[in-house]
Amino acid sequence: MTFVREVVRDAAVGVAVADRPEDLVAIRKPGCAAAIWRRQAAPAFQSWLDALPSTQLPRLRATLRPEDVSDALSQLFDRARTPKCAERVQLIDDMAALAHLFADLMQARYLQVRLEPVKTNACRKFHVDAVMARLICTYRGTGTQYGISKKGDDPLRVFTVPTGSPILLRGTLWPDSPRSGLLHRSPPIEGSEETRLVLVLDPVFDREDAL
Q1: pTM for this prediction
Q2: What tens digit of pLDDT does each residue of 54-110 get?
Q3: CB 12 within 8 A of CB 103
Q4: Which tens digits make up the pLDDT trace of 123-132?
Q5: Of 11, 54, 99, 195, most Cβ neighbours within 10 A?
């Protein structure tokens, strides 16, 4: 695991790069604003996912217990008529594993789960999310972009998370100081004919708060 630290006054801007999922716990280090699990999908899996018609990419917004994510996704993929194959099982299993990993790390009983195909410049402005923390994994297409902000301005240097690599980001409700000085956005893809598939997980500590 590597930990890149740049100094910005009164802001956490460090980015940890982990080779193992358990190393994402680095998000709890002082000054760490984000942690990326560096990994790459098998070429056969990525080719299968990239070749799927956008109509067969599922969409979900739900508050779920981590242990219910796998079944919910299976039903969702059936409704989207995503072909049943080993790659589909692998995708569902990976998303469910990320849900368990993130829930354990955040000590959250529930998760707000969002899975959606994206063709537009959704969330194109650099920002920090109004949550405690957020996990984003782009399974298909260009990954999330991020950079260090000084005084709230857009970053001068923009980095892109590799496809298939989850990034864990502190939000504005992170309990420790200082605030996060690392901003992120969805990549501007409108007009490119690109379709991304993005999984977003937020912790929910009381399910009634999310209803």
Answers
A1: 0.92
A2: 999 999 999 999 999 999 999 999 999 999 999 999 999 999 999 999 999 999 999
A3: no
A4: 778 999 999 9
A5: 99
